[in-house]
Amino acid sequence: MRSSFDLKHNIGKITPDTKEDLEILKEVIIPGSFVTAKSPRSIKIRREGELIRAKTGRREIILKIQVEKIDLTEKLRLTGKIIEAPEDVEKGYHTIEVEPNKFLKIEKIWKSWEIDRIKAAERKPEPILICILDETEADFYLLKERYKHLIHLDSEASGKRFETKKSEAKQKEYFENIFKILKSKSENIKKIILAGPAFAKDDVQKLIKEREKEFLEKIIIDSTFQTGNLGLQELLKKGLLEKLTKISRVAEENKAVENLLEAIGCSGKAVYGLEKTREAVESGVVSLLLISDEKIREYEEVLDLADRMKVKITVISSKHNAGEKLLGLGGIAGLLF
Question: N or C, which end of the chain is more exposed by having fewer CB within 10 Å?
Answer without folding.
Answer: C
